[in-house]
């Protein structure tokens, strides 16, 4: 369907139009290769959030970590929009022990006060896009860095920075992850199927959202999301040699922790976007088991790394499209698990 139909009824204190606002906010969340591995259901009083692992890239995410991260990010957007509409989102994670795909149930029965930060974060949903191009050398201020750490803690995760002396080790790990992945024909085939998509594709990464083509002078090994059709960068606009990198981490593994990490990731991204800071991901560090183990050692050994971010001041970049709400929601009942 080309247009999003209105749901058949209200959800709790939210009317039909508000329900669609909430769902459109949810599907604006980031996901690995813009795979959008989620489904939603509505009942008379709640939104239901489901993981859809079959939509995710299976070679680079065989354990569904990225699926649950994406669902956590979508859940955070959903919660924020419900709150922004003056309703308290009462969340139960994994409400059905027999169905691991049932990520959350969000009841919408009680009114709530809307705080200014919620309004800022909701406004940032439309501003947040993955920025795969060179960033400026301007430093992210210490006050904002502290605010980003607080944002992660609010969602029961930790945001770990990397001291300058660790950057060379990270560069080596990124290069090793890239080499190992691209030596696997199955990975290369999957990568090509998700990247370099035509503009306006409802999923995957279009070439218009990719960064410029990698060049020989790049200090970091970069992924080419353009399918080989990326633009040649402007003279003097190389990628930063010492990027501001952060790792979202948890103390435990598993779907519950990954959903929390996804919510933390999205709260960090929105808090950054609200102050004009853009972000991209170094997912390959997590996707390759050997480099993920080394990354865990770098951040102290106790925490489990879930996602690595590159943050800084970039600019405007085209938004990647999303599937229509009608394609991911079962109005009037829980989605199939």
UniProtKB/TrEMBL annotation:
InterPro entries: Nitroreductase-like (IPR000415), Nitroreductase/BluB (IPR050627)
Gene Ontology molecular function, alphabetical: oxidoreductase activity
Protein name in UniProt: Nitroreductase
Endpoints of the signal sequence: none
């Amino acid at each position: 369907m080309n247009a999003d139909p209105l749901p058949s009824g209200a959800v709790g204190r939210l009317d039909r139009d508000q329900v669609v606002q909430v769902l459109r906010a949810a599907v604006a969340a980031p996901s690995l290769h813009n795979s959008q591995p989620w489904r939603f259901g509505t009942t008379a009083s709640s939104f239901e959030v489901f993981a859809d692992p079959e939509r995710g890239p299976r070679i680079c995410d065989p354990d569904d970590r990225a699926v649950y991260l994406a669902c956590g990010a979508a859940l955070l957007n959903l919660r924020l929009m419900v709150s922004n509409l003056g309703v308290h989102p009462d969340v139960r994670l994994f409400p059905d022990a027999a169905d691991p795909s049932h990520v959350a149930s969000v009841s919408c029965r009680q009114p709530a006060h809307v705080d200014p930060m919620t309004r800022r974060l909701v406004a940032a949903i439309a501003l947040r896009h993955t920025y795969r191009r060179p960033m400026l050398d301007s430093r992210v201020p210490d006050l904002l860095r502290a605010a980003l750490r607080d944002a992660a803690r609010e969602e029961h995760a930790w945001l770990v920075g990397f001291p300058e002396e660790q950057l060379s080790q990270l560069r080596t790990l990124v290069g090793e992850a890239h080499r190992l992945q691209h030596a696997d024909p199955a990975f290369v085939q999957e990568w090509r199927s998700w990247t370099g998509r035509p503009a306006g594709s409802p999923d995957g990464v279009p070439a218009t959202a990719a960064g410029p083509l990698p060049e020989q002078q790049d200090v970091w090994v970069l992924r080419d999301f353009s399918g080989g059709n990326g633009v040649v960068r402007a003279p003097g606009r190389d990628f930063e040699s010492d990027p501001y990198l952060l790792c979202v981490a948890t103390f435990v593994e598993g779907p519950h922790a990954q959903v929390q990490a996804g919510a933390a990731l999205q709260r960090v991204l929105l808090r950054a976007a609200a102050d004009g800071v853009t972000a991209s991901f170094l997912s390959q560090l997590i996707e390759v088991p050997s480099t993920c183990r080394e990354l865990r050692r770098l951040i102290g050994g106790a925490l489990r790394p879930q996602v690595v971010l590159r943050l800084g001041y970039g600019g405007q970049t085209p938004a990647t499209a999303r599937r229509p709400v009608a394609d991911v929601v079962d109005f009037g009942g829980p989605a199939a698990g």
